[in-house]
Prior knowledge:
The chain is of the alpha/beta class. Helix content is 42%, strand content 17%. It has helices at 2-29, 32-54, 65-98, 104-130, 168-180, 197-204, 222-226, 229-238, 279-283, 303-308; strands at residues 134-142, 153-157, 185-188, 216-218, 242-243, 247-253, 256-262, 292-296, 313-316, 340-344, 347-351, 369-377. Helix 1 packs across helix 4 and helix 3 (65-98) runs antiparallel to helix 4.
Amino acid sequence: MSARRNxxxxxxxxxxxxxxxxxxxxxxxxxxxxxxxxxxxxLVLSTVLVPVGLLSSSLRRRRWSEQxxxxxxxxxxxxxxxxxxxxxxxxCLLVAAVTAFDSGALQYSSALAVPLLAxxxxxxxxxxxRRVARVVKVDVPIDGLPAALHGYSIAxxxxxxxxPTIKRPYLEAIVKRVNxxxxxxxxxxxxxxDGSVGRLAPHTQPLARLSAPDGAFFVTGNHEYYxxxxxxxxxxxxxxxxxxxxxxxxxxxxxxxxxxAGVADxxxxxxxPAHRSDPQLAAAGAPPxxxxxxxxxxxxxSATAAAAAGFDLQLSGHTHGGQFxxxxxxxxxxxxxxxxxxxxxxxxxxxxxxxxxxxxxxRFGAPSEITLVRLVPA
Length: 378
């Protein structure tokens, strides 16, 4: 009953927001009756398609379901930009009215600019989202780093979201680029999938080709728990990845040791109490002579606990860097960092913008990345 009520609430809100866009733009465009009818039909179509995009990862596999998911998600991205730009236009018109600026000339031009800019942002965002993520190189200074670990590198990928629009070829291109980096280790920091093992196992198969001397590691993100985390953990281990659930491994270089630990997602205990994220437990039993302690944690907000547990570096994702404007402005309401390298006491935290995308195939102002993290002496 609650789920049905929530669905009705979301649908009602979508209808109201589409009505708002129509009422604020169409009268000022001077479309005439045929144009008004065509504009209204497009807004009604968007109202229908956006929920399809929201529910795309749960669509049953039937004829045209994949094409329908694509159309719904594209409509979702376009609607988002339309809504934001319509609101910003209204703010500009309000400022013009308050300052006694003659806004008459702005009415038509700004109303025309909104759909054109929304379409342009969606097209550019589509190209940004669908191309193979660029490599971002990050040097992390570590106090007292042994000479044998100078330049130790970890290739990080995160938030790929294999699912409705991200399939095997997209992941194959990522794996090929990661392997070409020749990193000492590979870290997959969660939100790999949006869907069940039964549906997506053929598309995650390229992960079996990830190759690094010290191994490829995986930690769960929140989307794994929406998709059957226990089954995915078994599948990823079958593919050869080391899944770290509040656990660690120790690797050595020239007599110097380094610990790579991983925690379950920050919210994992809501789905499985046994998976409660615990950096202290992840570090428990480590040799006393470990020179560097690295934690893989999907969400940046694990950083406070990671710092208390004595880690030197935390690699995270989850935020997508906001993925596209204006959602980057809302990330700080939940997470301490949006993207990049930051410090929490003596702990360095690197937050990836993500290697894929969630929902609409759209990235604007937040490019995807494959991160090559190198340890360097402070």
